Model the fold of this input.
Amino acid sequence: MINSSDVTSIANSAPFRNADLVLSGLGSSYEGISHKEAEHRLSVFGRNQLEQQSSLSPLKIFLNQFKSSIVAILIFALFASALLGEYTDAAVIMAILILNAILGFVQEFRAEKAIQDLKKMAAPKAKVLRGGKLKLVDSSILVPGDVILLEEGDKVPADARIIESSALQVQESSLTGESMPVSKSPSPVSQGKTSIQDWSCMVFSSTIVTRGKAKA
Done:
């Protein structure tokens, strides 16, 4: 029986380990896990999706910039300076508050937009082997140990370690910014390769298979 710490440990070492070791560590095989085991793991690990949260309105994001203790101190200093007639100091503090609010708003707004974009990019369906049988399922119910099938034109439904492939190429521009597809294979990479761009034995959620096929 695997737990969250086991999955985290295996996921962190997956690019550097033989595919068979990754499968055995996850209690899986080239035929995937059983339907019953998949249901159990779904109850343990939850769904394969970003945490569902209501999106923040621009006004809410802007108001959030005034909630920190430092901002509260600056607001107090602003009113104190104004009451004491130190209008120059008050103006400087006001400028700092406005600049801080604008910068914070821009960063948080972009982060919120990025989260919503990622949700839109997620593959809605996945081809998965459950007990050796091919099934088409919602990608949100994929669990650790599932074996997914990928072919040309597919959107990758989850981060995964490749266990078999044939002439596989994947477009990862949404992840790395590189426009050219990259070749992938099951061969593990060396420990010195710490950038995901060098992890040729891994596929990543929402990237696109442009050629070939694979199990992962």
